[in-house]
What does this fold into?
Amino acid sequence: MYDKVSPNLNFVEREKKTEKFWEDNHIFQKSIDERKEGEVYTFYDGPPTANGKPHIGHVLTRVIKDMIPRYRTMKGYKVLRKAGWDTHGLPVELEVEKKLGLDGKEQIEEYGLEPFIKQCKESVWKYKGMWEDFSGTVGFWADMDDPYVTYDNNFIESEWWALKQIWEKGLLYKGHKIVPYCPRCGTPLSSHEVAQGYKDVKERSATAKFIVKGEENTYFLAWTTTPWTLPSNVALCVNPVETYVKIKVGDEKFILAEALVEANFPDTEYEVVEKYVGTDLEYKEYEPLFNFVTPDKKAYYVTCDSYVTLTDGTGIVHIAPAFGEDDANVGRKYDLPFVQLVDGKGEMTKETPWAGTFCKDVDKEILVNLEERGQLFNAPKFEHSYPFCWRCDTPLIYYARDTWFIKMTDVKDDLIKNNNTVNWIPKTIGEGRFGAWLENVQDWGISRNRYWGTPLNIWECECGHRHAIGSIEELKSMSDNCPDEIELHRPFIDAVTIKCPE
Ligand SMILES: [Zn+2]
Ligand SMILES: [Zn+2]
It folds into this structure.
């Protein structure tokens, strides 16, 4: 019934023979044509990037992604398998920058956006042939003759359509994302760049006394390693489940974590007046430490978040949403105002008495200021590892930049509900890793201040009105200056204006 398998069988040769047989006889196409009446099962390949070579890891994913459509085909489904190419993004830009000998956004803009993105477009096909050969060799079937390409107008248009749906549901918004930022270069750094520039430095930290509203001589104690962020403070944060105490020392009372009293009051006589769990303190108000600005939303109260630990400090953290990722998360959770008294050059803004001074250089003056007003509890020196710019040796700051977000936190319940209907194999992935990720889902920052990607479909008017465009047709219907053959990329799209519906 079967041929005997020769012990000298050449597997490679046999594979090549099968591959050739499939090709000569158009077996893939036939597998679709012969099931014209069959129920449709659609597969879109999660697209690889063809500006990098395929590697051994891709064999596994290609094989798995072939197995399921093949199984469905054998069950009688008509299986459409659409190949795709991922062509946008920073890696492409960096590749082109390297090739052209450019360094950074300034030089790219000098070179010109139009020729730059033309180079990007060519660069992404560098290894297309290799990918096609490789896919054939591992027996991966997909329609490679008519793939979807993420830089094509029709693909970008489909993204615009989706973004407009999200916009109309109120789930797309402009907010702030905290990035490691070099104030001299005026640019955020990637985590890889940040990792290159750590140095051990000795600095002054501050434990500040925040006056509890309506209580005499009573203070929240909060420790910070960055005193220059204190003028931008809008809230305090405690761990919701830890124990806090109010202690009396002389005629002053202090609120801090029970576990950190000894560390902050060594050899001091004190009396515990009250005990709380963190949540008891939630929404308790205090007097602002500085009065440089009047926030546009409710501020200066205690918030709760489990990121606060009792490893050092006082167990109470000062929150400045403009200067820390955790702070920004708490800010979003409690809808806190956004106060940023440091500008893009890293200098204090004109609202403060230190206008024009580099933020880290005002630490000392802030300590003196607090001391004079009796609101400095302590200013211990501490040593830590701090990141510096690898290009220019300036200390980096964590700084909020304008970013567009999709409000994932608003659809969290749906995400979890849907995840629970997925037949995960193995089950633990869905419940464990992916489930845990969904439980802690954050709003998704989708924008980049770059060139080679899908342009955001939001047009902003001087009057403040924003309009989301969902298609080229809609764009043309609202615009007087949209060319017939518009390419949906920068710099072309930047020149198109629309009439404000308001
Ligand atoms: Zn720099
Ligand atoms: Zn308008």
Remarks:
- The longest helix spans residues 56-74.
